[in-house]
Write a structure and sequence with these properties.
This protein is mainly alpha-helical. It is 50% helix and 0% strand. It contains four helices and no strands. The protein has helices spanning 23-26, 41-73, 84-91, 95-110. Helix 2 (41-73) crosses helix 4 (95-110) and helix 3 (84-91) packs across helix 4 (95-110). The radius of gyration is 18 Å and the shape is elongated.
């Protein structure tokens, strides 16, 4: 199970690095971060687990940035602010999800974290 995303006052764990693959290797659909070349099942499990944790951490972090961007775009002080429907269309979300992300982003920008806080994801 993935660990919860660390919040502002907690240090972030450093997951395994996600290295870019050369274009010619990445074009091969059977190739994935060189996992197919690992023969030892223990080593394969360890590396695949590292990659899984790295992707989860990257996803959590990206979602936080999406939420902050959504909150900034919906800020009523902006003359060019967007509605939740506009944000939903741009991000390919539902309008309800966009509203939750705007609120989550506002909470992140205020530094609000607590027992009543719910991550929209």
């Amino acid at each position: 199970m993935a660990e919860p995303t660390p919040r502002r006052n907690e240090p972030r764990l450093r997951p395994a690095p996600l290295l870019f693959e050369p274009a010619q290797v990445a074009a091969d659909p059977e190739h994935f971060f060189d996992l197919e070349s690992i023969d030892d099942p223990r080593a394969l499990l360890a590396r695949a687990t590292e990659l899984t944790q790295a992707f989860r951490a990257a996803t959590d972090r990206a979602v936080e940035f999406q939420a902050i961007a959504a909150a900034q775009l919906a800020d009523p002080r902006r003359f060019d602010r967007l509605t939740p429907a506009d944000i939903a269309e741009q991000a390919e979300w539902t309008e309800d999800y966009a509203k939750k992300m705007v609120e989550f982003g506002r909470d992140l920008m205020r530094g609000v974290e607590g027992p009543g806080h719910v991550d929209p994801v």
